[in-house]
């Protein structure tokens, strides 16, 4: 697909605010989507200092931009400036996408939906009735745990280096969604059995991410079995050590590029009101993969 995006006086604007923003792949992703679909919408990124967050948000509203993404360190602080925040985003305590309609600010979190769409598309299966082990207890783990619970996971295990953070997510998920949960520290051997018996294993830590590519998220890697699905939210490198070991054991493995892509597609759908056809989305994914790899 050809990417063409000519800016004119009629061009609508979406953007990213955060600090830093220079490393972000969102401008490439969203401008690729606009170019491929022929939508007159341009995406740019603004580094915003902490003391300027409120004036930046007021400015975006005054300029009538379509909406914006929010990244570190403002995903939580932005909630105070919004007129409405989605239930999912409130549960996650983080907003990464804002749409401006009639001067009102609506906040969403697209990470969970991005993860879910990637998981279903790339594994051909879902979470219903499955036992799911999530390693990590940060923002990504929270989004994944909420979505897996919403989509009917039978049991969710939260495994983290700092067990208190795993406990918080486990309690939040069981209290709000009634899903059976358990948490465990990577300092206890119990996690090894949990990882060996779960249907789905997800690394949601940053362990193994470039440049620390030798790292794995647990002190001892589990004995993978070939019927397990192993997902790693990291996309740089495209194959972490954790995924490579799972692949050797014959597991179905997926990296985080799809999650990154689909969370962006969902944000794009929120801003434009478009419901992108699956065949088009697959073409876009291929274009995105060519740019990223
Ligand atoms: P976060 O909130 O800072 O949480 C980081 C998590 O990783 C914590 O559970 C932390 O454990 C754990 N961790 C960090 N270094 C570790 C190590 N060496 N060994 C074991 N555990 C370690 O970060 P986040 O926002 O959840 O992001 C986590 C990862 O997901 C990052 O690599 C990020 O790039 C990726 N991500 C990908 C996507 C995507 O679209 N593919 C979306 C969001 C995030 P403690 O609690 O013990 O500190």
Helix content: 25-40%
**Mean pLDDT across all residues, rounded?**
95
Distance between the termini: 17 Å
Residues in β-strands, percent: 15-25%
How many DSSP-defined strands? 12
Kindly report the oligomeric state of this protein: single chain
Within the largest sheet, what's the order of strands? 2-1-3-5-6-4
The low-confidence parts are none
Name the hetero compounds present: NADP nicotinamide-adenine-dinucleotide phosphate
Q: Number of helical segments?
A: 10
| Structural classification | alpha/beta
From the spread of the alpha carbons, the general shape counts as globular
Describe the largest sheet.
6 strands, mixed
Q: Helix-strand pattern, N to C?
A: EHEHEEHEEHEHEHEHEEHEHH
Query: What's the Cα radius of gyration?
Result: 19 Å
What does this structure look like?
By secondary structure, this protein is an alpha/beta fold. The protein has helices at residues 26-37, 53-62, 87-92, 111-123, 139-150, 163-177, 190-197, 241-248, 257-272, 278-292, and strands at residues 12-18, 41-47, 67-70, 84-85, 97-101, 104-108, 131-135, 155-160, 180-185, 200-203, 229-232, 252-254. The chain is built from ten helices and twelve strands. The strands form two sheets. A six-stranded mixed sheet has the order 2-1-3-5-6-4, with helices on both faces. A six-stranded parallel sheet has the order 9-8-7-10-11-12, with helices on both faces. Helix 1 (26-37) crosses helix 9, helix 4 (111-123) packs across helix 5 (139-150) and helix 5 runs parallel beside helix 6 (163-177). The two termini are 17 Å apart. Helices cover 39% and strands 20% of the residues. Bound molecules: NADP nicotinamide-adenine-dinucleotide phosphate (NAP). The site of NADP nicotinamide-adenine-dinucleotide phosphate has 26 residues, from helix 4, helix 5 and helix 9.
């Amino acid at each position: 697909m050809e990417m063409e995006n000519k800016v004119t006086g009629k061009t609508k604007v979406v953007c990213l605010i955060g600090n830093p923003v220079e490393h972000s792949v969102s401008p490439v992703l969203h401008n690729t989507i606009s170019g491929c679909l022929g939508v007159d919408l341009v995406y740019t990124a603004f580094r915003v200092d902490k003391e300027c967050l409120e004036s930046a948000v007021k400015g975006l509203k005054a300029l009538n931009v379509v909406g914006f993404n929010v990244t570190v360190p403002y995903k939580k602080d932005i909630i105070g400036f919004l007129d409405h925040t989605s239930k999912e985003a409130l549960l996650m305590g983080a907003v990464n996408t804002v749409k401006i309609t009639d001067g009102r600010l609506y906040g969403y979190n697209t990470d969970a939906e991005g993860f879910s769409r990637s998981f279903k598309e790339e594994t051909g299966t879902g979470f219903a009735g499955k036992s799911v082990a999530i390693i990590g207890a940060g923002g990504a783990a929270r989004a994944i745990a909420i979505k897996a619970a919403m989509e009917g996971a039978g049991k969710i295990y939260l495994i983290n280096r700092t067990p208190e953070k795993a406990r918080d997510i486990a309690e939040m998920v069981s209290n709000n969604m009634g899903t059976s949960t358990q948490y465990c520290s990577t300092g206890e051997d119990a996690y090894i059995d949990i990882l060996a018996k779960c249907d789905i294993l997800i690394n949601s830590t940053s362990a193994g991410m470039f440049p620390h590519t030798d790292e794995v998220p647990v002190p001892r890697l589990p004995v993978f079995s070939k019927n397990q699905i192993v997902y790693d939210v990291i996309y740089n490198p495209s194959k972490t050590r954790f995924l490579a070991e799972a692949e050797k054991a014959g597991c179905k493995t997926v990296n985080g590029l799809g999650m990154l892509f689909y969370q962006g597609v969902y944000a794009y759908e929120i801003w434009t009101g478009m419901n992108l056809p699956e065949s088009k989305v697959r073409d876009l994914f291929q274009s995105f993969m060519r740019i990223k790899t």
